[in-house]
Amino acid sequence: MDVTGAWDTMVAMHPCGWFWHTRGWLEYCAAFDGGNQNLSWVQSSQYMRVAGICPLVWSGGGLSGNGDPLAWPLALEAGALHAMLDGIDQVASARCAAHVAFRGSPLAAAPDVAPFLARGYQDVSWRSRVVDLTQSEEVLWRGLRKSYKPLIHKIEREWEIVADGTGELAGAYAAVHRQSRAGEQTPRPARTYEFPTEWIRNGHAFLVGAQGSNGWVAFAYVFLYKGGAYYGSGPSLVPNVQHAILWRAVLEAKRRGATLFELGWAGRSMDRKERAIEFFKAGFGGVEVPLVVVEKRFG
Fold it and tell me: 73 near 52, Cβ under 8 Å?
């Protein structure tokens, strides 16, 4: 069986599937640390057909995507889901895992939590901010925080804002991303910068960047999948430029056919920096919608 092909076909066809389910994203999560492992598997039926897929990554003593909940197991039949839940418990026991968590996506159909709650999971759902891109550009502009509008105009006059859907600017993005995080965290492995380039080239992401006389100073990396867009990262070397970049990214996602733009999780900030990021994203309008999350702790 072509595991990768069967896996991504299931993601594409299942109503609850989104980019976080894809094989490439799970391999990206596993590449973050030398101790991480991609333990995901395809669940087969008695007729050797694909009946489900179970995203599972070993990370930091638990089963998660580098601390974040994993994408929801996808099943075509109840028996496959129960088999995957059994398998998750077995892996957790063998690894002495502290916990496992799964999440849905506001950009896909909401999963059914009932089978998970029946197996000892807790519903710990939170929210995420989503913008409706079926609205006109004029309406989207009206939805921006008032203080952002003159700032965006000022930035657009002072910097060249460019969209890239070919991967041409991927190297510049990686350089800005590395520089923006220097001194804050352990440097990411080089492989984690190769995946984003591949996703741009295969049409699952794009970049918007700001360039001045001294080079590139900021970027927005946006995922694209199944008519939805997700603001993945926004590294910046100068203040405030990201306002105009994200606004251009919203319009670029709309131009590329996305109907929803997820800005990111809401109500999850743990410190001043994270609160500032949430406040920044809230200035682009949209509404907070439920994000289904379940968690199970062991031991």
Answer: yes
